[in-house]
Structures are given as structure tokens and as C-alpha cells.
């Protein structure tokens, strides 16, 4: 009886062992499925590079006569105002009108239009551009008026710079005195002195084209009133030297 009982116990024990092993296999398999498998793929890092802001160039308005407008230069890029603006890194707004002055107005022969206002009357147009720099140049077209009424010319010069400073308190103002293709006379010196004084009152930088005379005889055109590219270059160099 004992031997028979032992033979029956062996199969039962084997079945129990098989069941345990099967359960263990299923448990290990379930654990493997439940555990996240690290990805072997490498995500590329996204690098965001800040866009560098391009520095804004200062805006420079040029007011004046035919010299500012560029009469005599072979191309607009060769006029003295454009040469100065280019070398100083300014965006030029050229409001030059031939034949005009602080009191002098002009017409078709001077500026090419039916009527062109004086420099003083152009202040509003300059202010409307919200410039960083304003360059006012000229005065030679006021020489005749100065002989007749020097006080009127002096007042117009002063008013021009006073208005610019009041309406553009943060702008850089540059006053370029008159030029002459002839010998420097008393009238030219007087108008130049008025420009120098007006500039000092409002804290503007002043540039003389008469000390010494920037215009060499060889640069004067046949009309006797304007200069060629070399003359424009000479004026530009004078201004650049005085206005760092």
C-alpha cells in the first residue's frame, strides 16, 4: 500500500512544479511588457538662435540751396550731402532747393518748380521726417538781401535754428555756412558770422566754408556759380573734418 501511494504522489508533485514554472514564465513575460523600453532613437536638439536686430541708421535731413540739391555734380551720389551721409552712415533725406536761402525764395530757373520756399519755411518739412540729424547749409543766395536789409537776414537765420531746436530737441543740428565762388568779401563774412552765432545759441555744430575758402577756382563750372564733382568732394571733406 505504501509503494502504491508513493507512485501516485510523484505525478501530482510534478504537475504542481509544472504549474509553478508556467506561472513564473507568465509573470516574467507580463513584467517585461509592462516595463517601458528605452528608445534607442536620439532626438535632435532644437536650437533657437535669436535673430540679431539690424541697427537702424540715423535719418539725416539736408536743407539748403542748389549746392545741397546737387547742382554741378555728375550724379546725386557725387553731391557733397550724399558723400557726407554715406561716410557717416546716415539715411539721407535731401530737401535742397536751388536758388533758396534763409530769406530767398526761388522759381523755375532756380529749383525747377513754380515756387520754392525759403529755408526758414522748410523747417516744417524737415521736422515731419522726425530726423536724428538736420544739416542746414547755404546763405549765399541771401547776399543781395543782406545788403538791402541785414536785420531781416539775421532774424531769418536765427529763427530757422530756433525752430529746429524747439521742435527737434533731441536732434543733432549742423550749420554749414555760405560758400562763394569769388573772393570772400564783407557780406559773405557777415552772413557766415550770423550762421555761426545762431548755431551757438541752439547748440548746433558749425562748419565754415570760408576759412579758408573751400572752393578752388579750378572746380568752378562755366556758369560761375556752381562747382563740379571735385568741388562737391572738397565741401564734403570740410564738413566731415568738422563733424566727427
TrEMBL record:
The chain crosses the membrane at residues 12-30. It comes from the Bacteria. Gene3D superfamilies: SGNH hydrolase. It holds the Pfam family Lipase_GDSL_2. Keywords: Membrane, Transmembrane, Transmembrane helix. The keyword Acetylation does not apply. It comes from Kineococcus radiotolerans (strain ATCC BAA-149 / DSM 14245 / SRS30216). Residues 62-234 form the SGNH hydrolase-type esterase domain. This is Lipolytic protein G-D-S-L family.
